[in-house]
């Protein structure tokens, strides 16, 4: 037996409609795949985008806030430009077989670049130079120069003090020698005792002993024999010689005269060589040597003026008046 099969109109309609349904599924699948690719395409650059970092070498603390605000404003502008692409990607259907790439999520990361400028500024601060942060070599040279100048100033001060001290000593010696010339040979019958006492205060050592032993008795006997005798002396100049510690030399130039009832003897520019010693802080005359001959007194006999000790222990001759002829009866 054979069975006859036949297709009804309904079956034909089903077969005709089945073909478009499959094609429509394939079309929808292709469209969803393209939409997924289109949605994923703009999201990829956002994942690969690199952040730009601005490095500021030197930045002040006052400008730091302004720089951070400018960077935040740029990030906000970029986020607003990317915002319209995100809803289109979300509206597209997600295909089942292929996972849809998620849009990149923007995260705010700490910006080390904003903190680097102060560190760089701090690193550059030691490089600044001022009067108190000089290099090593100039500092050493300056220190050595200061020490040298300080030593020179001390030496000059010491030298000046030494010169001043020596000058003071020479002035003191000159005063003693000048005072000796004014009192030692300036006597008369009324003041010889006072003058000899003043003279002895300026003497010391052998000179003082010789003055007491020889000069004082000679002067006293001369005025006792003739009260009209007048011996005068006046210091003219003093030349200070060497000064060696407590010892010194000087030359005294003075004008001397002797008056008696018989006449007068003048000895101008008489020179005495003196030796002095510093005793108990005061300069004293210890020796003297008479000298001094010039055109005015070279014809006169030396040693005619009384009271001039020789310094060697010998006494001076007694005064001698000039010889005068007695009238004949």
From TrEMBL:
GO cellular component, one term: membrane
Region named Disordered: 1-52, 64-127, 287-329
Stated name of the protein: Mce-associated membrane protein
Segments of skewed composition (Acidic residues): 64-83
Stretches with biased composition (Polar residues): 287-304
Presence of the UniProt keyword Transmembrane helix in the record: yes
Residue spans of biased composition, Basic and acidic residues class: 117-127
Stretches with biased composition (Low complexity): 32-45, 84-93, 101-116
Residues annotated as transmembrane: 134-155
Domain of life according to the entry: Bacteria
Subcellular location: Membrane
Species: Actinomadura bangladeshensis
Keywords for this protein: Membrane, Transmembrane, Transmembrane helix
